# Entry
Amino acid sequence: MTRIRSLSRAGHAAPLRQRGAALYVALIMLILLALIGIVGMQVAGLQERMAANYLNTNLAFQAAEAGVRQRECYVEGVVNRNGACADAAADINQICDDGFDATTWAAEKSIDVPQENRVSIREIGPCISGNSSLAMGTAPVSEDPNPVYQITVYATNDPAATANAAVDTIFRP
# Structure
């Protein structure tokens, strides 16, 4: 008894039984590639959000830093009586012993609605140089030979106001 095998079109003997393993392997590879693609898209989206948050925080810090520099120029103009940077005018609190805390002040500003840039300028020279009476901090001092100011600025990343920053400096003109 001879066994007859059918020939395929190419002239090769056709296998008796095909199992379809290549199909399963290809499907598993496609699923793995799809999962890798999905994870890659999620990572890219997360990195984009982190970059946007960093940008907004940096813009808020730069706005606060610019506000401080403008107020330092204004204070310099007030002390030297030359009127420099008059467009950055702000009230100067001459009572230095008022319990001001920059961190608490900035935290209070962060819950204000609408969010706006804020400035606090305090003349603290009389309190730290001993150029005041025993009632230190209760009345303004007319002339301080050692002027020192605390300038605090709270700023947001305009116009979105999604990030904020506060800069607190001690300035001696």
